[in-house]
Design goal:
The complex is a heterotrimer of chains A (181), B (187) and C (219).
Chain A (H helix, E strand, L loop, with lengths): L8 H9 L6 H8 L4 H8 L2 H17 L10 H19 L5 H8 L9 H15 L3 H12 L4 H8 L3 H22 L1
Helix pairs in contact in A: 3-4, 3-8, 4-5, 7-10, 8-10
Chain B lengths: L5 H8 L12 H12 L12 H14 L23 E6 L10 E9 L6 E5 L12 E2 L5 E9 L2 E8 L3 E3 L6 E3 L5 E6 L1
Helix pairs in contact in B: 1-2
Chain C lengths: L1 H26 L5 H16 L5 H12 L4 H24 L7 H13 L3 H10 L6 H14 L3 H13 L4 H5 L1 H11 L7 H17 L12
Helix pairs in contact in C: 2-4, 3-4, 4-5, 4-6, 5-7, 6-7, 6-8, 7-8, 8-11, 10-11
The chains are: A mainly alpha (181), B alpha+beta (187), C mainly alpha (219).
Chain lengths: 181, 187, 219
Amino acid sequence: MSGSEGATDGQVVRAVLAGDSERYAELVTRYRDRYARYAARMLGSADEAEDAVQDAFVRAYDQLAQCRDPDKFVGWFFLILRNRCFAERRRSKDVAPLEAAGAVAAPERPEVPVETAERRRALQHALLELTPEQREVFVLKHVEGLSYGEIAERLGTSVPSLKMRMHRAYDRLREQLRDRA
Amino acid sequence: MTDFHPQVRQLLDGDINLADLPPELRAEGEEALRLLAAVDREPVTLPGTLGARVLAELRRRAEAPGFWRRLRLRPWTLVPAFAAGAALALLLSTPAPTRAPAAVTVRFVLFAPEAQQVALAGTFNQWDPAATPLVRTGAPGVWTATLTLPAGQHQYAFVVDGARWVADPAAPAVDDGFGRRNSVLSL
Amino acid sequence: MKAFCVTLLLAIAGTALGAQQDVSARLAGRVPPEIAALVHQLALGAAARGLPIDPLIQKAIEGSAKGVPADRVAAALRALTAQLDVAAAAIQQAGSNRPDTEAIAAGAFALNAGISAKQVTALALVSRPPYSTAATLRVASTLAAMGVPGEQTVDLVTQIIASGGPATDVLGLPGQVMVGVSQGQGRGVTPAQAAAGLARAAAARANAPGQNKPKPQHP
């Protein structure tokens, strides 16, 4: 079956599993930006996000036969990306702060005042000092704008435990930002 | 002690406003709001070439001798025949010419001259004895079936005459949890 | 931003709902109702603990297809769940906070094949990219099922990985052990002995003077 106008995720996944591997690119195009911001804030830069998203798509392809519900590809893909984001921070825990500075120093948009750019960089640095779980709850609420209830449902935890995690994150962020001031 | 006051944390959570804070917490509240203002919420767009790069990476891994390449396993030795039930599994491995997630063609063979019917049941066909009957070949007593299976580890057994579950004597076997043995096939 | 949140929420909620419906769909008509109910119950707990549920579904279908009485199937399912938990803990011991479900399933299978929990941990420890934990454990299970004792299986796999060849070297181990057995049949070579011979050969290659160890391939 040729032509992919309006094909559902499930149809594309099934086509790929049946041997039409080139069609996988449609899924990549569809969803490459969906979690890009989440990955960027979790890892510290858009460059790292790009690597993580690319790796996650490659991994998802390898495991495609195990995607239980092809029509829910994007949710399953998110979990693969999430694992990659968590694993990546574990690996690079020993990166010196100076190197992290390099990663976060992405070219700024000209309309963003220097002061704002500086504060954003400082906060991103501070975020990277949190545990992945703390960083994630902060990113999901304050970057992606989800409510505690929505986050709890997604991560399979309770709102009270999320709040505890978040409040610890607030305190640590404050500590980090003060040390740098 | 740099912990935020609990009420300021509520402010950060969005449960209360700055105006709701008592005067002595006002400064801390403003500090907290400055922290939130520093959050970068700009959408991130990844290059349009990502799709092509993912495909290129998949192609590269399919072609380079590497982890995802299917192995050409040697045919297993024919174990000196026991009574009916000696079996042999030949692996006909085809390195996938396309780059689809790998699949391997496998031929299952059972030597069972006394049987009236033989079937193959395993993890790849929901253990349904009706799904994959073997057929008699020219050689007397030899039954075969050929399947294309996805990469991975599979368990299976032969079902003789609809009732007798027989593991493959020449294949590695594991406990099935029910007091019998399953044969293991790794692709 | 709201549109993103809603879509994301639906996608994730859909995954959870879809998973449960998927369990029902796969069990429908293949297992008696009380087994289906038990699978659902065990699957809920398993999923919450990050364990794969596919092995449970497979085992339930297998037992019913084999005509095994329901109480025996139930016992096997509970035993399998315990194996999944032990496998997950054993792999976590090797330093992975969130072992992937494929590795856990392979670990449970390894336990079933006679590999000990400690040996599962040892295998997970040596499995750095490009050697995946799941594949290493599957190979170990096959070797154990062939009659190679657990300790020797760990030795052999460790030795092959240490010599730095491509991951296909690990995947090819069961076949190589079979060849060793068949070639030594006249002398009564057991799988254990064949495995030991392979391990010695790999160690000798790795330690040969002037040997340039091939670099492991990066995925």
